[in-house]
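To whoever is on call:

I kicked off a structure prediction for a single chain this morning and the downstream step that reads the tokens threw a length-mismatch warning. I double-checked the sequence; it's 89 residues and nothing unusual in it as far as I can see. Pasting both halves so you can look.
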Amino acid sequence: MEESKEPIIFTVRLVAHDDSESVKVEVTQRIRVATLIEAYAETKKISAQALRLFVNGARVNAGQTLGDIMDLLQEADNDIYVQLEQTGG
């Protein structure tokens, strides 16, 4: 039996830091986190550089793919939390 080369598509939910609104996105494991950050920022009309993503309390780096963090995603029911970086004091 041959292994399928088709990418597995699944849905992740990007949840705002204040739980005000979430965005559901269909993705594959090959998608880079940076792509999610850029898409979310464009949707919300905010700077992508100001966003930080967390899965199950762990910060996710933009260079990672969803495949890299699959175990964390499964534990968090495919929820990724989005926070705005605070600057200044």
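Update from on-call: the warning came from a stale cache, not from the record. Cleared it. Sanity check on the structure: The mean pLDDT is 89.
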